[in-house]
Specification:
This protein is α+β, with helices and mostly antiparallel strands. It has five helices and 13 strands. It has a seven-stranded mixed β-sheet with strand order 5-13-6-7-10-9-12. A four-stranded antiparallel β-sheet has the order 1-2-4-3, covered by helices on one side. It has a two-stranded antiparallel ribbon with strand order 8-11.
């Protein structure tokens, strides 16, 4: 790890900790996030963690650029990765089925695993939340098994149903809301991922760990899932 500080605005610095996406980054990112919060205190307006960076937005009334950089250097002194047990755990039920996951069969054929093998491989791994973005509650999770890696669709869809589970390259994610999208869909979850009522809004945060639990259609419906078959719509 060779941390670098980059200027992204008059009141914002980017702390780059890594150059490559890797699951091993997250314990360091979590530890750095907490150290930055502690170092900046009330001068911190916002902190946005991502795959390899921390975006630090600070109060210009309380700090100038030099002081902000000094706080970042202070935060990095003696930095140690966060313990794995500090991460929140989520078990997310998923109905893996071609009627709601139009790329499931194609992925099974392309990978050589078959549909059952895709479901087994995808649900066997515990994924890390790398970052939130694109839509409220949308979490970029990874990394999927290399055999499941799939490029984004050449033509994105106008509407992807809420709860749809997809794969893009070696990342996987659930669409929390109805939205456009170009990920390869393999199933659907009944879990509500974004809610304005509770604190935090999003079910998960960067650093959380996620396991997908295959369920049958009857259980999916019992949990409130929408089992309407996916209907193709391109942009």
């Amino acid at each position: 790890m060779k941390p670098r500080i980059e200027v992204v605005g008059v009141d914002s610095l980017l702390l780059r900790l890594f150059d490559q996406i890797d699951e091993g980054n997250m314990p360091w990112m979590l530890a750095a996030s907490q150290r930055v919060r502690d170092a900046f205190g009330t001068a911190l307006i916002d902190l946005v963690p991502s795959y390899t960076t921390l975006l630090v937005h600070y109060d210009l009334i309380q700090l100038d650029d030099l002081q902000a950089r000094q706080h970042l250097h202070q935060a990095l002194e003696g930095l140690q990765p966060a313990a794995a047990e500090t991460a929140r755990q989520h078990a997310i039920p998923v109905w893996y089925d071609a009627s709601v996951g139009p790329e499931l069969r194609a992925l099974g054929k392309r990978s050589g695993l078959g549909v059952a093998g895709v479901i087994e491989q995808h649900s066997a791994h515990i994924y890390q939340v790398f970052a939130l973005g694109f839509a409220p509650g949308f979490a970029f999770l990874g990394l999927v098994d290399e055999r499941l890696a799939s490029p984004r669709l050449a033509t994105p869809r106008k509407q992807v149903p809420a709860g749809s589970l997809g794969i893009a390259d070696r990342q996987t994610a659930i669409y929390p809301l109805v939205s456009p999208g170009g990920w390869n869909l393999i199933g659907r979850s009944p879990v509500r991922l974004f809610d304005r009522e509770p604190d935090g809004y999003s079910l998960w945060q960067p650093g959380d760990r996620v396991r997908f639990v295959p369920i049958e259609r009857a259980e999916f419906i019992r949990l409130g899932g929408n089992d309407s078959p996916f209907q193709e719509t391109a942009v």
